[in-house]
Amino acid sequence: MANTHLHHTNDTVKESGKYICAAGEARELQQGDTFPECPVSHEPTTWKHADHEHQSGEDVTETGTYVDRDGEKVELKLGDTFPNCPNTGQPTGWKHA
What we know:
Blueprint: E1 6-8, E2 17-21, E3 26-29, E4 46-49, E5 54-55, E6 64-68, E7 73-76, E8 93-96
Antiparallel strand pairs: 1-4, 2-3, 2-4, 5-8, 6-7, 6-8
């Protein structure tokens, strides 16, 4: 399965937040921005959203695999809603797996 939370230079930012390029440099980017070239090499690069957490009930803005605080993994698509914990049924936090 493709790594859907890896973004490339010139892709459009779909979710505001802190991103880290392949060289390890962090940048705050806003929804609608374009992923820049690497600030170190000034060449095209890949970007990964820094470690952040989504909450149950929020809309999914990136298709991919997510893991909750208990370690349960789910596949979610753009437009889905982050579910409650599959084990407890309680609201939880979700991160990119």
